[in-house]
């Protein structure tokens, strides 16, 4: 199945690459920060048509509304374009993210970094890979030497869990903080050791499903802000190399 997930992720990526830099029809979803373009929808259609044809008994949960048989043994959780704001504004950082669960547990995940043509993949108990090369989280235990990454939710202007205090607290601790605009790519950069840790509030199953497996199979930790085990429906996500996990929890608790 992993070969199929990689194949369809790359095909969707090619569709996105061909549309990049051209004019887009932009619609707002929940508010004016939350965009969707015709390319998000076209990518989702390509991916879900493939699943329906090749795996008709499998379930589908996809960001732009495609759903099928969500209680099936196998469930494909699809973000057809993660990083839509970057895509729509001409910033070449975005991905396709596809995770597959069996009876509620992720068994395979792929994040395709479209413009760099890099495939991140993982299968349960088989490790994580970047273009076929095994990857692992870094071993940095010093928060002062860490480079962290985060994202901001689309409801940031109304959400009381508004992320500002945490952002300031980590700015004062870390060597640097980045905000790339594609949570799925952020997770992969934790998995391959580029970043030491990631946190964000208000994520969705399609942002998380593939990236969680890729981080965990690379030796990292993926929990809520209290260090508790989570599933893909959890909102507050802390993903780290494992070694600085408790230190990041302590910073958040100190706020
Ligand atoms: C968004 C990106 C972004 C994150 C947002 C996500 P989208 O996904 O992953 O980095 O900060 O929370 O919703 O809307 O581009 O698929
Ligand atoms: Ca997303
Ligand atoms: Ca998306």
Describe this structure in words.
This protein is of the alpha+beta class and 255 residues long. It has 2 domains: 2-135, Fructose-1,6-Bisphosphatase, Chain A, domain 1, CATH 3.30.540; 143-253, D-Maltodextrin-Binding Protein, domain 2. It is built from 7 helices and 15 strands. The strands form 3 sheets. An 8-stranded mixed β-sheet has the order 4-3-5-6-7-8-9-10, sandwiched between helices. Strands 12-11-13-15-14 form a 5-stranded mixed β-sheet, sandwiched between helices. The protein is globular, with a radius of gyration of 17 Å. The model has no long low-confidence stretch (mean pLDDT 95). The chain binds D-MYO-inositol-1-phosphate and calcium ion (2 copies). Residues 79, 82-84, 151-153, 181-183, 200, 203, 207 line the site of D-MYO-inositol-1-phosphate (IPD).
List the helices and strands and how they pair.
Layout: H1 2-19, E1 26-28, E2 35-37, H2 38-54, E3 59-62, E4 67-68, E5 74-82, H3 84-89, E6 95-102, E7 105-113, E8 118-123, E9 128-130, E10 133-135, E11 147-150, H4 164-173, E12 176-178, H5 183-191, E13 197-200, H6 205-217, E14 221-223, E15 237-240, H7 245-253
Parallel strand pairs: 3-5, 11-12, 11-13
Antiparallel strand pairs: 1-2, 3-4, 5-6, 6-7, 7-8, 8-9, 9-10, 13-15, 14-15
Bound molecules: D-MYO-inositol-1-phosphate, calcium ion
Unreliable stretches covering 5 or more consecutive residues: none
What is the CA-based Rg, rounded? 17 Å
The strand count comes to: 15
Order of helices and strands: HEEHEEEHEEEEEEHEHEHEEH
Multimerization status: single chain
Q: What is the rounded distance between the termini?
A: 44 Å
Classified in CATH, the superfamily of the largest domain is Fructose-1,6-Bisphosphatase, subunit A, domain 1
Number of helices: 7
| Helicity, as a percent range | 25-40%
Shape: globular
Number of domains: 2
According to CATH, the fold-level topology of the largest domain is Fructose-1,6-Bisphosphatase, Chain A, domain 1
Averaging pLDDT over every residue, what do you get? Answer: 95
